[in-house]
User: What shape does this take?
Amino acid sequence: MLKWYQKGLELHHLQSFMAVAHELSFRRAAQELHLAQPALSRHIQQLEHIVGYRLFDRDTRGTRLTEPGLALADGLKPVLAELGQTLRRAEEAAEGRRGRLRVVYSIAAISSYLPEVLQAFRQRRPEVRLELQELESAEQHAAVLAGRVDCAFTIMEPPARPELKVIPLFREQIGVVVPRDHAAARLERVKPQMLAGLDYISFPRHFNPRLYDSVLAFFHREGFNPALGPVAINRINAMGQVITGSGFTTINAASAHLGGPGTAFRPFDGEGVPELPHTFSYLAANTNPTLQAMRACVQERFGGAA
Assistant: This one.
């Protein structure tokens, strides 16, 4: 025996049935649906053929639901209401007013401008679920290119890939973090040579190869060859080692607060101080509608075309 969905049941059959069940009048139901009455009658006849029983009794006294028709009407009310809500949610998702946006970021971004951008996004799209994750810059670009996330706020020169859309936001010079009682902490700007005697607490080169190399090249140009100390697993770990007197580290100004009162951040004094390139990136082919709202927030914050 054929199932009802194999017999050609369509949504207009159910809409026509519910309209007649509500009005108990084919004429008024046809007016409500903006249908010709013969077309409405045909929908009801087709539905009765599909389900295999009469849904309405019609005589000189009017139109009445049969017992099976009454059971069907009672059961369809919540089903069609939920269907309507589902369709509205889908429409909102298509317009970027609902859904999710997967965002990865660097600690340099979340320490400075990113909270403002995220707040603007939440005000613009309060029903969108933001999925936030901190990643190192190299991992961010890999995640975007693989489609695991929608966009990235990073501090690393992106790979030259035609499918990757990269929006430059601003560039920020790095500085040095030293123990609070070190002589360099009493200066407004620090020459690299002032750090002699302290080990350089660096980060793994694969976190940001270009920045790693540019920092060492800057030191070399300034005639400073630091002793390489422990390699920090993250910025907080680096700050902790600075506090204990293990050495100095390099960081951007917005992240300097991570060191707390036991450290001091100072800008470098010298030519060609390395810079962090803050960027916003996403796949050019990304069709997630919520991404457009994030692009608008970035554009409002930094100007230009995102």
In short: The mean pLDDT is 89. Residues 90 and 119 are 24 Å apart (CA to CA). The chain has ten helices and eleven strands. The domain at 101-169+277-302 is CATH 3.40.190.10 (D-Maltodextrin-Binding Protein; domain 2).
